[in-house]
Amino acid sequence: MLDILVAAPNDPMCCPSLAETQTYRLTKGGLFLTGLTSNTRTDELRSIKIESPANYTEAGASVEVKGSVSIVPFEDTLAYFIQDDTHHTIDQGSIQVKTGGPGGPATFDAIIDLSKSSPGLIIHLAFQDVSAADGSILALGSVELTRK
Fold first, then answer.
1. What residue segments make up the domains of the chain, in order of their start?
2. Model confidence over 17-32: pLDDT tens digits?
3. Residues ≥6 apart with Cβ < 8 Å to 42
4. How many CB atoms lie within 10 A of CB 62?
């Protein structure tokens, strides 16, 4: 786990001001970024929490993923990526979050298609809040699954 400062979109290169916490997991394929939280300019925590499925569970050709975000992402959209243990991207897409209004918390409940992955494969399913300003990751939540 790393607590770091990174450059915000308008920061000079000398003076990063955006606080992040990055969490990594060591797997057979190397280090995986499994979590990332960041603070807004007003010091609010931006995070993604996956409530189900649990880490290290088995999933079929599709999986229902439920979770929440602490701050609504741009256009109410989260990106997702499915990777194998060697960091090869198997599939990617986006989902909509359910929100009560801009700037507040939101939830998500989506069926993710895993059919492009092979049975027995360990997969990493990551959800990202991506900055519209520069494409950086503002928050990330992930789960590791075995495809059955």
1. 2-147
2. 989 999 999 988 889 9
3. none
4. 12
**Cα-flanking dihedrals φ and ψ of residue 130, to 5°?**
-105, 135
Do 85 and 29 touch, CB atoms closer than 8 A?
A: yes
Find residue 6's DSSP bridge partners.
18
Length of the chain: 148
- What is the spatial distance between Cα 105 and Cα 46, in angstroms, rounded to a whole number? 9
**pTM, 2 dp:** 0.92
Please give the Cα distance from 44 to 47 (Å, whole number). Answer: 10
Kindly report the CATH class assigned to 2-147: mainly beta
How far apart are alpha carbons 105 and 118 in whole angstroms?
A: 35
pLDDT tens track for 30-84: 899 999 999 988 889 999 999 999 999 999 999 999 999 999 999 999 999 999 9
Contacts of 138 (CB under 8 A, 6+ apart): 36, 38, 46, 73, 128, 129, 130, 131
Rg (CA), the chain: 16
Residues 24 and 1 sit within 8 Å (Cβ to Cβ): yes
- Residue in the structure block whose two tokens are 């308008």: 10
Amino acid at 118: S
